[in-house]
Write a structure and sequence with these properties.
With 207 residues, the protein is of the alpha+beta class. Helices cover 36% and strands 29% of the residues. The strands form two sheets. Strands 3, 4, 5, 6, 7, 8, 9, 10 and 11 form a nine-stranded antiparallel beta sheet that branches. The chain has a three-stranded antiparallel beta sheet with strand order 1-2-12. The two termini are 24 Å apart.
Length: 207
């Protein structure tokens, strides 16, 4: 898939993952050269030498795995791999027994996605009604909730910005997924890069 690392598994030059990968490969080459030099100066048995090279390769593999996962965000409720034009401005906040909130924004600052998971048995429409009451108290214009596959959606307008909030429920939690800015860009992030732990909280989003 198209991710931070490019198309069909190719790393994007200049990306954080590419930089980390290059650094790891450089370190591996230096360590291997040092090991071979030591072998010339202080001969080791072939089995011992092969064992050391194997351990060096294993360590390099671990470092490369870290590079590949450098921009993967994993939570109790979902895993998301951020493409090159997205970032997470702060770590996801998990409140035990209450839920979680995570925010992702495009690097140009034009689109933001917020995912909030709340521990509640309320249905999606009921939760949305309470949330919209609080939003209107903060001078946010909201439309009536409309039914979508698996939940409800509400459009919001504030300070010249348009957005949409999706609400879904699995009977134990409610997910509130907000997209401000380019709704198409935000939906693409969620549809292509997010893997839910419970599809009841993240059904296919529809306009």
């Amino acid at each position: 898939p198209d991710t931070l690392y490019g198309k069909k598994g190719k790393f994007v030059e200049g990306s954080p993952a590419f930089t980390l990968l290059s650094s790891n490969l450089f370190c591996f080459k230096r360590m291997l050269s040092t090991l071979l030099f030591c072998q010339q100066c202080f001969p080791l048995k072939r089995a011992v030498l092969m064992k050391k090279i194997f351990l060096l390769l294993a360590a390099c593999f671990v470092l490369l795995t870290v590079a590949v996962r450098a921009d993967e965000v994993k939570t109790e409720y979902f895993t998301i791999e951020l493409p090159p034009d997205w970032k997470q401005p702060r770590p996801a906040r998990n409140i035990p027994g209450r839920g979680l909130t995570a925010t992702f924004v495009t690097k140009d600052g034009k689109t933001a996605v917020n995912i909030a998971i709340v521990q509640t048995s309320l249905r999606a429409r009921e939760f949305a009604a309470h949330a919209m009451e609080r939003a209107m108290e903060r001078d946010t214009f909201v439309t009536d909730a409309r039914e979508i596959s698996g939940g409800v959606a509400v459009e919001i307008f504030k300070d010249g910005h348009r957005g949409v909030i999706y609400y879904f429920s699995n009977g134990k939690q409610v997910s509130s997924i907000s997209i401000i800015g380019s709704i198409a860009t935000g939906r693409e992030l969620l549809q292509k890069h997010l893997k839910p732990a419970d599809v009841g909280l993240f059904p296919a989003l529809t306009e």
